[in-house]
Amino acid sequence: xxxxxxxxxxxxxxxxxxxxxxxxxxxxxxxxxxxxxxxxxxxxxxxxxxxxxxxxxxxxxxxxxxxxxxxxxxxxxxxxxxxxxxxxxxxxxxxxxxxxxxxxxxxxxxxxxxxxxxxxxxxxxxxxxxxxxxxxxxxxxxxxxxxxxxxxxxxxxxxxxxxxxxxxxxxxxxxxxxxxxxxxxxxxxxxxxxxxxxxxxxxxxxxxxxxxxxxxxxxxxxxxxxxxxxxxxxxxxxxxxxxxxxxxxxxxxxxxxxxxxxxxxxxxxxxxxxxxxxxxxxxxxxxxxxxxxxxxxxxxxxxxxxxxxxxxxxxxxxxxxxxxxxxxxxxxxxxxxxxxxxxxxxxxxxxxxxxxxxxxxxxxxxxxxxxxxxxxxxxxxxxxxxxxxxxxxxxxxxxxxxxxxxxxxxxxxxxxxxxxxxxxxxxxxxxxxxxxxxxxxxxxxxxxxxxxxxxxxxxxxxxxxxxxxxxxxxxxxxxxxxxxxxxxxxxxxxxx
Length: 496
Fold this sequence. Notes:
single chain, alpha/beta, 5-stranded mixed sheet, 4-stranded mixed sheet, 13 strands
C-alpha cells in the first residue's frame, strides 16, 4: 500500500481548466441548500480512492455512506464512490491523472505533477460556504498540521493540491485481555521491555504482534525507530526551510534529505541508520507473525488486522481512523499505546528521548484533477468544503476514530494515545506527511527491507542495497522538484 505521492518518496526511505476566481463566490447559500439556482443540484460526481476502513472492495463502510447521503440531502449532489484495491490504487490514479481521465475527486497519494490537479490556494483563501461567518476556508484547519508553514503540505509550485478530511496518526492497538493473561502492563515504556513482553505473550499462546507483507507492515514500526535514533543528526541535516530556501525547519524536509544523501551527510552506512535496521529486525524476529511475508495486507487502517481482530495476535500497528472498524470486529477490549522509547539499555546510540509521532495531514485527503470543470468542479469543491465543516464531519470522525483536521472538534477518546504526551508531538523526520511507501521509484518500502528481515541478506548487503535506493530516491526528487541546478546535486545519478 502506498499512501503518499512518489515525489516525496525519499522521506519514506527514511522513516523513514480551473474556474475563475469569482466562481466560488457564486456558490451561494442557495447552492448549498440544494436549490437549483445554485447550479449544482442534480450533478453527480465520482470520488476514487483506496479503502482505509474496511476490507470491502465496494464500500468505504456505513459512516462514509452516511456522510455522502447527508451531502446529497444538503446540496442535491450525488457522490459515487469508486473503491480501488490497496495494492494498485496509486498506479491506477497516477496513470489516470497523466492521461487526463481521472474522476472528479482522487485520493491524493499518487504520482502526479502540479499541472495535473486544480490548485486550491484561491479557494482556500475564500469563505467556506458551510461555515457561518467564515472569511477563509484555510483558517478552519489545524494550522499546525495544514498550513503553508507545514512540511509536505505544499507542492513544488507552492500550491495546496489537496484537502484533508482527518489527520493521520499511527500508534499500537492492543488486546487488553491478552495483556492481562500474559501479565503485561500497558503502555509498554521501553523497547527492551517490548521485546521481553513479546516473549511473555508468545508463552501465553498469542502471536505478539500482527504482521503482513504490506508496505505499512514495515513502514509503521520503522518510523519511530529511525526517528528516535536520528535525533543527534537533526541539526546537521536541517539545512532548508519548508519552502526550500536555505535555513531551518521544525522537521527535516525532503530537500534536507536529498541534500544529505548527495553530500554524504546522510548515508545507509551511518551508525544510526544501520542500528535502526538492526532494531527493526529484532522487533520482527521477536514479535511479528512468523509467516508474515506470505500474508497479504487487506486494509489501509492497520497491519495484519484479521490476526488481531480474531484475538490470535495481541498487538497491531494501526492508524487512528481505523478504530471504528477494528473495534466492531474484535470481541475483546482494545487499548491504544505509543511505540516505546529506545533507551541506552537497547543501544548506545540512543538519544534517550521519548518516541514521537504526531498527527499530520495526509490520512484521508482528496484532490481535484485539472480536467474537472463546470458543474463537476463546483460540486467537487463543495464536497471538499462540506468535509471541512464541523456540523457535517463530527459524526463521521467519531464513528471512525479519526482525529479532526479542522479546529473546534474534540478528538475521540478511543484514540487518545495518538495525540497525548510525547507521542503526540511531531517527529523530526516527519515522514507521514511527505512520504510514500516507495523507497525509490518502483521499489516498495517493504521490498527494500524484506531481504534482511527474512535472512536472505546480511547486514552489509542490506546497507549497500539501501544506499543505492537512497541515491535513486534523492535523484528522483532532485529532477522532479527542480533542484538539478543545485551544485550539491551533481553527485547523484541521473534519474529518468
